[in-house]
Structures are given as C-alpha cells and as structure tokens.
Design brief:
The complex is a heterotetramer. Chain C is mostly helical. Helices cover 55% and strands 0% of the residues of chain C. Chain C has one domain: Non-ribosomal Peptide Synthetase Peptidyl Carrier Protein, Chain A (Orthogonal Bundle), CATH 1.10.1200. The N and C termini of chain D lie far apart (41 Å). The chains are: A alpha/beta, B alpha+beta, C mainly alpha, D alpha/beta.
C-alpha cells in the first residue's frame, strides 16, 4: 500500500503530534507559573517539572479512566496529562474556591477524584502506602484497575518505599511504581544518597519486574508504560519503571542550585524531551515548521485564559473553614 | 514596554537586595536571560527576565534593598530605538507591589493623635483617671509627659484633696482582696453575704463555698459596708480559725440583723407533758449500755423531724420572694461552740433515722462542730433549725430564724410542773416549745398546727 | 478491787479534761457542781459518765446522775460501787 | 416494671472485641482486618484468635512489620471503597505510622476540598501497667485526640468493647479505637444481644454530688475504686467515663461539674499538654463561676515508664492519688 500514510500510520502520526502538544502544554503552563510566582500571585511552594514532561505524558498514555494515580508535590505535569482541567489547576494555585481542591491544597495537593487523581503528597514517599492501598482494594474487589504511583529518587531513602514495594510484591498488588529519577533529591545528588544508584536493579531485588527507561524520550516512556501496565492488568503483579529524566529548573522556586553546575544543565537541555520529539517529527515530515508556533500560540492563549479565570475566581468563604474536616453526613 | 521588577523568590520573602546587574543599559535581553543577582537574606540567586526587550535605564543601584515588585529597570520593546525619555509606565506592568510595606506619604502632622504614650505613662494616667487623648503634650514633638498628666489630674480635682483620695480607692491602699473561689463569690452574691465579712478560710487560705454557706447559715448580709475611712488601712487578718467552727461574731451579727430586718417573725408556744417520754427513756436506757443511752434532746429532734415531714410548709426556704420546700427534712442543730462561735449544721434526712441513729448523729455532729471538722453539705442544707437551750437552764427560747429558712423551734429546760389531768393535779416533767415563723411564708395557724402534731408525737415515744 | 477516793478523783479529772481540754481541773472544790463549772451540757455529761464507766468498770445509771454532780459525789459513789 | 430477664453471659473484654470483629467481617464483605500477627498467630493479645480460620487470608491479613506501609495501605483501600480495620499492635508502634494517620488519613478530605473520604478504623492497644518498660508502655491517646479529621474512642467497659466497632466502621471518617492493655482480661456479664453503642457521648458511671471524677479507658477502674473509698468517708464522687476522646463530649462533664462544683481529671498520659489539660481548660472556660476549687489532674509522672514494678506503680496514676486529689478539691 503505497500511500505514504496508511490509516494506521496517520493515526500514529496524529498521536505523536498529540504527545508533542501535551508536553508543550505542560511546559507553557509551568513557565507561566514561574512568572506568576515571581510576581507574588502564586505563593507557598512551587515545584516545576520543566524537562520531565515526557514521563508524565508517556506514562499517562497507558492508563484507562478506571486506573488510579498517586503523585508527589512535583505534580502539575501528571495532573494536566491525566486530564485535570487546567482552569481548576491554575485556580488552585491562586488559592481560589474553583481550584481542584477548593484552594485548600495548592500546588502540592491537587485532587480530582473523578479522574481518580488522588493528589500530590508533600511528604516524600508519603503517597506510596496510599497507592498500594488503592491497588489492594481494587484487587480485593476484582476490579481490573491499575494504580500508578509516581515518586522521585529521593523516596528511595524512605522506609515507606521499602515497606510498600515489598508489600506490593508480597501481595501481588496491581501497582505501577513510576520512579521519576531526576538525579537530585532537592539538593542531594543521587550518588550522595544511595550506595547503589541503579534504582531499577535495586527494585528487581524485591521480586518485581523492573526496567530502566530513557525518561527524556516520550515514545520510549509510553512503550515501557504500556508493556508494564498490560503485564499488571494481566495479573503479572506489580512493575517498576526507573524513568531516567532531569529537571532543568531549580528544585523549587527558591533554590540557589549550588549543587550542580550550569554545564550539566546545558548538557541535559540538549535532550529536551519536547525538542527531541519535535526533531523526530520534523525529520519524518510529520511536523510542519510553522505548526509549532501555532501550537505554542494556541497553548499560550489557553494558559492566559486559565490565569484570567483564576484571577477573577472567588475565594472560598471563611465560613467554610471547618467544612470537610469530617464528612458531612446527610441530615 | 514591560519592566524588570524585584521577584518574589520564596514563601517568606517580602523584600530583596540587588547585588549586581548581569547586563548593561542598552543591552538586548530575551525571555529567560539572567538579568541580575538578588540576595534574599538567605542566599544570592540569579534572576531571569520574563520578557524580550532592550534595557533602557536601571532604576535601582546594586546594594539597595527594595520590596518585592519594585521596578528595578525599564525595558524598551525590541523594535524601538532606545528613546531618551522613559516612556510612560505601561499599564500592564505590576506597579503596586503585591506585598511589602506601603510607600510613605511624606510627613505632615495629624492633629491630636499623640504618638502612643509609653505603657507606664498610660498606666499612670489611667490610675489618676486622666484621658490622654484630651492632653496637649508639652514634650518634644507634642509628646505627653508625666508632668502633663499630673497637672491635668490636679486641674480637674474639685477639692484640694491629696491626689491619693481623688482616685478611686487605689488598689495600693485597699487591703489585698481576700481570695475566694468563683463559686464562693457567686454564692456570696446570691445569699447576700459580704465576702469581706467572711473571716473563715479553707485550708488553702481562700474562702470556699463552705465558709460562705457557714456565714450565710449563721450570718446576715453585712450592715452597709462601713465608710472607707473607717477601714484602717492595714486590717490585721484574724488568725485563721479552725475551719467550719461557725461564723465569727461579725458574721453572726450581720446574719441576725438581716433576719430581724427582713423576716416578719410570728411566735407561738406551748408547754408539753414529757411524762411518757421521760418514763419511756428511763426504762429503755436501763437496758442500754452507757454509750447507747438516749437523751431527751435526741428524742425531741426525732419528733420534730417527723413533724416537719407532716408540715412541709415550714421545712424549706424563702428565696426570691417565694417559698422553696426542702428536698427532705435536714434539721439544723444549733451548737454553742466554746469561745462564742455559733453554728447550726444539719443532720441529713433526720426523719429517716432511727432514734439511736439520731442520738449518734447528734453526738457526732456536736463533737465535729466543736473541733471544726464540719462538712460543707452539713452547713449548707438545714431546712429547719432547732435551738435547744435546756442545758443552759432557760425554760423558754424565742429564737431568731436563720435565713433563708422559714421557721425555728426553740426548746427550753425540762421542768417539773403541776399538771392537771382528768381533773386530778399531779407533777409532770414538762418542756416549753416555741415556734418562730416567717409570716411571709406561713401564718400563726401553721405554727400552731406544727406544735400540736409535735406534742401528739411526744405522747407516743415508742413510735419515735 | 475498791477504788480509792484518790483514784476516783483522778478518773474524774481525766474524764473532764477529755471533754473540756482546756479545763482547769486541779483547783475545783470538791463540792462544786461539775456541770455548771465546766458548762457541761447533757451531751457532755453523758460522755463524762461514759468515760467514768469505761475507766472504773462500775455500772452508772441515769438514777445515779444526782450523785455524780460533784467531784466528791463521784468519788464516794465509785468507791461504794467498787467495794 | 418487670423486664423480661435479658439473657446474659459471662465474657471478657477480649472476647467482646472478638465478637465485634466477627460480626463486622460477617456482615460486610468490604470489611477486612489487617495487621501484624492478626491471622495465623491470632493477634498479639489473642483478640483475633480463630478469625483467619473463619474468614480466610484475604479478609484477615497478616502484614510484614511495615506500620507506615500497611496503615497507609489501609487509608488507600478505604479511599477506594473498602472498610479496613487496621490493627497496630500497640500505640508505641503507631509512631511509625503517625505520618500516614495525620498527613493522609486525617487530612485528605479537607485538603481535597471534600472529595476524598477515608472510612478507616485503626485499633491500637495502649497504656502501661504490665512492666513492659518505656517503649512498650506509652499512653498517647491525647496526641491523636489533638488531630482534626479523625475520631478517637476509648472503650473501657465490656459493652463498649462489644459495641463501638460497628458504628466506627459505619463512620465515613477515620476512627481510632484505643484498647488499654490491662482491660483485655476484665470479665463480667454482657447481654447476649449486646450490639452497637453510641460513639458520641460520655457517660456518668457513678452518681455523686460532692465532686466529679473524669477519666477514660484503663484509668476508669482505678477512678471507680477511688470513688468507693471516698464514699466510705462520706464524700460522694460522680464518675464520668469520657468514652470519646475526640470530639470531647463537653456537655456531659460540664453539666456534672456545674452540679458538684469540683473536678479531678484522671489521665494516664503525661500531665504537660495531656488530654486532661484539655478537659481542665474546657471546664475552666465553661464552668468558671461554678468552680469552688481549681480543677486538679492526676496523671502519669513525666518520666519514661520504668520497668521495675514499684517504680511503674509510682509513676502511674493510682486510686490513692485520686482520693488525695478529691479530698484536696472538696476541702
């Protein structure tokens, strides 16, 4: 079939283009957040994952609506890739009542139960026990759902990590442990925190399938994620992906980055996940040169709209302060 | 034309110091290019530009500490030739800082809002009742001085009384207020007992409900407090008496005056033949050991208790212009404590006790009253008080009711009297019983009925 | 074993002091009425009799009260009853 | 009114709790028991003896020694629709899971703007008195009663041991049940048909009028003993069993103190910042004008619990100390 683009081919190309769009969308969103933070509009802590977009977008492709996600405080990419509305995320960062957590959680605690997005967690490895619990329930009720648990290399040092990975392996729970290894736990490089830095190798020792993945290549991430999730859904027990990635910006909006030098950052920027995919799509002719500008402009407009909506959104009335401490049982 | 402003670089940052510029005026910068180094009290951080443009003019010099949001340099759009005069500030740029202290409006004196007077001066003014805001300060820059306050105090004093007098009896001169528990204070207020007159204190040196009730049951609301001048400044605390030995003379005086002033007493009396009782007691005491022996006083108490149960209208309290019946009969027994104190603690549920139990209760109560070991409840609860002065040799006792009770029974000495029965004259042991009643609660007839029932009961001692 | 007047007098003194701790028992004339001297009411007097019975072992009924009115009376009665 | 003779049987606190567990597991398949040695070993205090054989390993799950892991898993499973009963062997080990209890179980609902509910029951043994020395003798109910977002119960009687679990499981929010170690062997009559009890109110266990003794859990028997000693001396003490440590049932104990005008709080926690401090503060706030003496507290000495019997007894609140405090307030 000589047609350059077979139907399957055009679908695949459209999909690749959509991956590019999703990654760019996260990038534009987070860069704008950095600005808003500097202008004092976003307060508290802000952890951006600029450079790690491939992990969020790639892993999410393997999930269905029924699957559950537990994330960390570097969660904007995960939330947006999972489909949490951008307006709701931005409003949450502005502390507004229309935020996805009514303005109570902020950047580190985005929740959207309709999308089974069970929040970021500000405690390193704090989300792992939740994730295996979600998986335990799904397994006990024979539901085909998979729970993806995102965490960083820093979590490796927490007791909870070892307890949960072992428990999941012991009880063969439907969990995908997605370790976003960006080589730094805040200011501590991986080799200064772990005796054995091959995290995938370490995970295998707990008796579960475990692979390292190039976390800057969204196609590679997607492929590995689909393989792992299918294996889990097929009853193969929990899987572990070590997604080797890198964050181009500081740990959070207030970090002098004395722990790494500019050359290292520059080296990793050469494998910027967005540029990597864009180059591929240009070489194959799938991506017209002006398409990226149009995409960027369109996404900038979406982000600005979210900012405007967030600025005009109402604050939660103070009277609601004590609501939801306990459940509001019916009258 | 956007500007380059001091960024917020942390949750707790509201100002930053420009350390150095990384660009020069006239340089072209692009989004993301580092523009300057800023120190945030914790560390120095490179700050990037969020816009493309040409650096027109630095508005802040290195070393200056400015609030977050303050414009550090103006940027001209890329395509414009650098103009000399900085264009009007573009509306979009953030001008008012989101956080940080408001800019000063320059100095002008607002009339009459004195810079806050230092606390000691405020306290001094309050003590002398001087309103600071009404003063024009003679101090530098219009500040109010201590001399100003003193002058104002003297100026508004009507008579040349020493400053000390004019002020509300200053805390310094008033004797340290007696410590009392909140409940004691509330009870004192409710029962009209002046705390200052309660000299009894608990083990912890404070007045508790027991002492107030003790005072109330034996004292009257104080005579209007003596004029301040009368109280000698240093009132010597009476040595703390053993607890619960009843109210002191002053409290008794207060109680009795209130009783006489407020309670319209009526009195009814009768003489009762105690022949059957004394005969019955003599016979039964012979079979009892000495410590079980029963005295007439105990028998009289038991008979009175049973009678009070028959006539509840005399067994209770007059509170807030209404009679409140007692929940049971708790006879108050007036005990004369050596040394002049007087107390009338209650024997609880007297009517339910057997005669031997009443006797034992009486002995125990009197012993504890004299050694100051009465319990709070015993002082709090008498519903009808009995004053038996037989031992003191008087034949008739016309007593004063203990507020808030509504009656009192006075018992005299057992006296051999000529007695006519069925037309024959004989000699019988008799006792004169007098009932004082509060005419607000009952009438003489009620008192009379009470005494008749009491007399009838005393004729059947075996039924006591 | 009969109680000598001296022993009886000590018993009386001890009994009175038990009831009226600060009573000055030593200087009481033999014939003085105990109840009036020490302001003993009927309850006190009952306790006084009780103490005498306990110490002397002698039985004292209400009819004996008139004899117990004075120190001398007590001494004679206790001596007589314990003979 | 002659009531039909209620069928009564002699039982122990432990058996009452076991019946409650059996009933919960039988009646609702969402319920499962999870904890260290709860299955094959039958429970460290033999509370769950026989339940593994009756309900199987899926519903009665032994866990590795991973408190944070399995408590967090309980939270996750509860979020996903299960009704887990997690047994933490003793409150001493709960410190390893305090982060999951506080930062996840108690906080998720509020932080998520009401989206996430955590219908989880956690049971813990608590208290000293068996010479287990400092690390096995803590009494930390007061810590947990400090946390908004959870309920805390302290069953002290057979009825409460039998009846609190059911309503706790029906509660849409996390409920902590503290069972004092010395109560398991307590025996006595219990109605055959004993069932669910209220889990909101405190209860007056003994009427009295001269003062109010307020206590809970393991200290209740000592407080009742002290009340009897006082009664022999003519002092009638009213004894209030708090039963619910959060939310505290102010109404019941303040009503009592308004009548008696005096209060002593008995609490096995350390005095400083203890639950008794909170009870005392509420009495002072709500009954100030009825207080005839300061509210006194009888607590454990502020020392790590010593091993030696005589020292432990000296450190713990004892009836003698309660009687002394009572006399002090009655004056």
């Amino acid at each position: 079939m000589t047609a350059k683009q077979t139907p399957k081919g055009t679908r695949a190309a459209a999909h690749r283009s959509d991956l590019l769009r999703q990654m760019t969308r996260i990038r534009v969103f987070e860069e704008r957040c950095v600005e808003l933070y500097s202008a004092g509009k976003i307060r508290g802590f802000l952890h951006v994952a600029v450079g790690e977009e491939a992990v969020a977008v790639g892993v999410m492709q393997a999930l269905t609506a029924d699957d559950a996600i537990v994330s960390t405080y570097r969660e904007h990419g995960h939330a947006l890739a999972r489909g949490v509305p951008m307006d709701a995320v931005m409003a949450e960062m502005f502390g507004k009542a229309t935020g996805c957590s009514r303005g109570r959680g902020g950047s580190m605690h985005l929740f959207d139960v309709d999308h089974r997005f069970y929040g970021g967690n500000a405690i390193v490895a704090g989300g792992l026990p939740l994730a295996i619990g979600l998986a335990l329930a799904d397994k006990m009720r024979a539901r085909p759902a998979v729970t993806v648990c995102f965490f960083g290399d820093g979590a490796y040092a927490e007791g909870e990590f070892h307890e949960c990975v072992n428990l999941a392996a012991l009880w063969q729970l439907p969990v995908l442990f997605a370790c976003e290894n960006n080589l730094y736990a805040m200011g501590t490089a991986l080799e200064r925190a772990q005796a054995e830095t091959d995290l995938a190798l370490r995970a295998a020792s707990y008796g579960l399938a475990s692979w390292p993945v190039d976390g800057m290549d969204v196609l590679a991430v997607e492929k590995a994620a689909r393989h792992a999730v299918d294996r889990i859904r097929g009853g193969g027990g929990p899987c572990f992906l070590e997604l080797r990635t890198y964050r181009f910006r500081a740990h959070s909006m207030y970090d002098p980055e004395r722990y790494r030098d500019k050359a290292e950052v520059a080296r990793w920027r050469e494998r910027d996940p967005i540029e990597l995919l864009a180059r591929q799509l240009t070489e194959t002719g799938e991506l017209a040169t002006d398409a990226r500008e149009a995409m960027a402009a369109e996404l900038a407009t979406e982000v600005e709209a979210a900012v405007t909506t967030a600025e005009e959104a109402p604050l939660e009335p103070v009277e609601d302060l004590t609501r939801f401490v306990l459940s509001e049982v019916g009258p | 034309m956007a500007d380059f402003t001091m960024p917020s670089l942390g949750a707790d940052m509201d100002a930053g110091t420009l350390v150095e510029w990384l660009v020069r005026e006239g340089d072209t910068v692009h989004r993301g290019d580092p523009m300057a180094v800023v120190d945030t009290d914790k560390s120095a951080i490179e700050v990037e530009s969020f816009d493309d443009g040409v650096v027109e003019r630095f508005l802040v010099e290195p070393g200056a500490r400015v609030a977050v949001g303050t414009t550090l340099a103006s940027l001209a759009p890329l395509d414009d030739a650098p103009t000399k005069v900085p264009a009007a500030r573009s509306p979009g740029a953030a001008t008012t800082p989101a956080a940080g202290p408001p800019a000063r409006h320059g100095h002008h004196r607002r009339p009459h809002t004195p810079r806050a007077a230092p606390p000691p001066l405020r306290h001094h003014a309050a003590e002398l009742g001087v309103d600071l805001t009404t003063l024009a300060g003679s101090g530098p820059d219009g500040t109010v001085t201590r001399a100003d306050v003193d002058r104002a105090a003297r100026a508004s004093a009507p008579s040349p009384l020493p400053l000390q007098r004019r002020a509300e009896p200053g805390a310094a001169t008033r004797p340290r207020p007696r410590r009392a528990s909140p409940y004691a204070r509330r009870l004192a207020a409710e029962l009209g007992v002046d705390l200052a007159s309660v000299t009894e204190v608990g083990g912890d040196g404070a007045v508790h409900a027991a002492q107030v009730l003790g005072a109330a049951s034996t004292a009257v609301a104080p005579v209007p407090p003596p004029p301040p001048a009368a109280t000698s400044p240093a009132r010597v605390e009476p040595p703390p008496k053993p607890r619960g030995t009843g109210a002191s003379r002053t409290t008794i005086a207060a109680l009795m005056s209130r009783a006489k002033r407020e309670i319209p007493h009526y009195y009814v009396a009768t003489t009762v033949d105690l022949g059957p009782l004394t005969e019955w007691l003599r016979r039964s005491n012979r079979e009892r050991g000495v410590s079980e022996r029963i005295l007439p006083a105990a028998a009289l108490l038991k008979a009175t208790a049973l009678t009070a149960r028959d006539h509840p209208e005399l067994n209770g309290f007059w509170v807030d212009r209404a009679f409140v019946p007692g929940d049971d009969v708790h006879l108050g027994v007036a005990v004369h404590v050596r040394g002049g104190a007087l107390v009338a603690p209650a024997i609880h549920r007297t009517a339910d006790l057997t005669l031997p139990e009443v006797m034992a209760a009486l002995r125990d109560l009197v012993a504890r009253a004299r050694s100051g070991r009465l319990r709070r409840a015993e002082l709090a609860d008498p519903t009808l008080t009995v004053t038996d002065l037989g031992d003191q040799g008087v034949e008739e006792v016309i007593g004063v009711i203990y507020p808030p009770q509504v009656a009192l029974l006075g018992i005299g000495r057992v006296v051999e009297r000529p007695w006519a029965m069925d037309g024959l004259i004989g000699v019988r042991p008799t006792v004169r019983l007098t009932l004082s009643g509060d005419h607000r609660a009952t009438d003489g007839a009620a008192g009379a009925r009470f005494l008749n029932t009491l007399e009838e009961r005393l004729q059947h001692p075996e039924a006591l | 074993m009969t109680i000598t007047p001296e022993q009886a007098r000590e018993m009386v003194a001890r009994a009175v002091r038990r009831i009226v701790p600060d009573a000055d028992v030593g200087s009481v004339p033999d014939r003085a009425d105990l109840r009036r001297t020490f302001e003993l009411d009927s309850l006190d007097f009952l306790s006084f009799v009780e103490l005498l019975v306990k110490e002397s072992g002698v039985r004292l009924d209400e009819d004996d009260y008139p004899d117990l009115a004075t120190v001398a009376g007590c001494a004679d009665l206790l001596a007589r009853r314990s003979a | 009114m002659t009531s039909a003779t209620v069928a009564v049987r002699e039982t122990t606190y432990r058996e009452a709790m076991r019946d409650a567990l059996r009933e919960a597991l039988a009646e609702d398949e969402r319920v499962f028991l999870m904890g260290e040695d709860v299955g094959r070993y039958g429970g460290c205090f033999a509370v769950s003896l026989g339940l593994l054989e009756e309900f199987g390993p899926e519903r009665v799950r032994d866990t590795p020694l991973s408190e944070s892991g399995f408590v967090g898993a309980g939270v996750g499973a509860a979020i996903a629709g299960m009704r887990p009963i997690v047994e933490i062997m003793t409150v001493n080990f709960s410190l390893l899971a305090l982060d999951q209890i506080l930062n996840n179980a108690a906080t998720l609902q509020h932080m998520s703007g009401g989206q996430v509910h955590v219908p989880l029951v956690i049971r813990m043994t608590t208290g000293a008195g068996r010479q287990l020395a400092a690390q096995h003798s803590h009494s930390l109910e007061g810590w947990y009663a400090h946390i908004p977002g959870i309920k805390v119960l302290a069953p002290a009687t057979l009825e409460d041991a039998r009846g609190m679990l059911g309503p706790a499981l029906e509660d849409p929010d996390p409920v902590l049940l503290f069972e004092h170690g010395t109560l398991y062997n307590a025996s006595g009559p219990l109605a055959e048909d004993a069932g669910p009890v209220d889990i909101q109110r405190a209860v007056v266990r003994r009427q009295g009028r001269d003062l109010t003794l307020i206590s809970y859990g393991g200290s209740l028997p000592k407080t009742l003993a002290a009340a009897e000693t006082l009664a022999a001396d003519g002092i009638e003490a009213e004894v209030v069993d708090l039963r619910v440590l959060r939310p505290l049932d102010d109404a019941t104990f303040t009503e009592s103190v308004r009548r008696t005008h005096r209060a002593v709080v008995v609490d096995e926690g350390w005095r400083s910042g203890s639950l008794s401090a909170e009870v005392s503060a509420r009495i002072t706030e709500q009954c100030f004008y009825d207080l005839d003496s300061p509210v006194l507290r009888v607590c454990s000495a502020e020392v790590p619990m010593p091993y030696a019997r005589h020292l432990e007894e000296a450190a713990l609140p004892q009836p003698e100390a309660i009687v002394a405090a009572a006399r002090a307030v009655v004056g």
